[in-house]
Amino acid sequence: MKQIERLYMLYKRDIYIYLLSMTHDSDLSEDLLSETFVNAISSIGNFKGQSSVKTWLFSIARNLWLQRIRKEKPTVEYNDLLELYVSDSIPQKLITKETANRIKELLSEKDERAQKILNMRVEGYSFGEIAQRVNITESSARVINFRTKKSIKMILKKEGLI
């Protein structure tokens, strides 16, 4: 049990920030953080060591978030996740189909690496996982993600869509 407590102390902040970046709700993020470690305790025997413990915990957190979204909306599509992710500071009621389509269009104009990074974040991958798959540093993945989202938001604001 001390090992789980150590893991909790080591990774709780990172996982909370990760969840908050997806949920934009501190209470929900706290709930999902707790659920993440409860699930980790019950499934620690299934951990095969094919990834880091941190990556494993992030995967549990991502899956819990996706389950929560699917409970609220049984048929969650990629477009819904993209809208939630790119428009993190936009009230959900302001997102229209036109805005969603424009987000997809603007993303398709970005270079392949930026598209891949943003798409992986939308799907819930951690920056560490993205860095490994795209073969860049974690901080580069964060910067590319931030700049891509910022660019899309600026264009949407200029066009009066948000």
What sequence of helices (H) and strands (E) makes up the elements? HHHHHHHH
Uncertain runs are 89-94
Please tell me what the overall shape is.
Answer: globular
- Work out the number of β strands: 0
Return the CATH class of the largest domain.
Mainly Alpha
Strand content: under 5%
Count structural domains. Answer: 2
Number of helices: 8
CATH topology of the largest domain: Arc Repressor Mutant, subunit A
The CATH architecture of the largest domain would be: Orthogonal Bundle
Termini, distance in Å? 48 Å
Q: Outline the biggest β-sheet.
A: none
* Class computed from helices, strands and strand pairing: mainly alpha
- Percent helix, as a range, is over 70%
Query: From the alpha-carbon coordinates, what is the Rg to the nearest angstrom?
Result: 17 Å
- The pLDDT mean sits at 82
Main attributes of the structure:
single chain; 162 residues; mainly alpha; Rna Polymerase Sigma Factor, Chain: A; Arc Repressor Mutant, subunit A; 2 domains; 8 helices; 75% helix; globular
Overview of this structure, please?
It is built from 8 helices and no strands. The protein is an all-alpha fold. It has 2 domains: 1-76, RNA polymerase sigma factor, region 2, helix turn helix motif (Rna Polymerase Sigma Factor, Chain: A, Orthogonal Bundle), CATH 1.10.1740; 77-162, Arc Repressor Mutant, subunit A. The longest helix has 22 residues, at 2-23. It is globular.
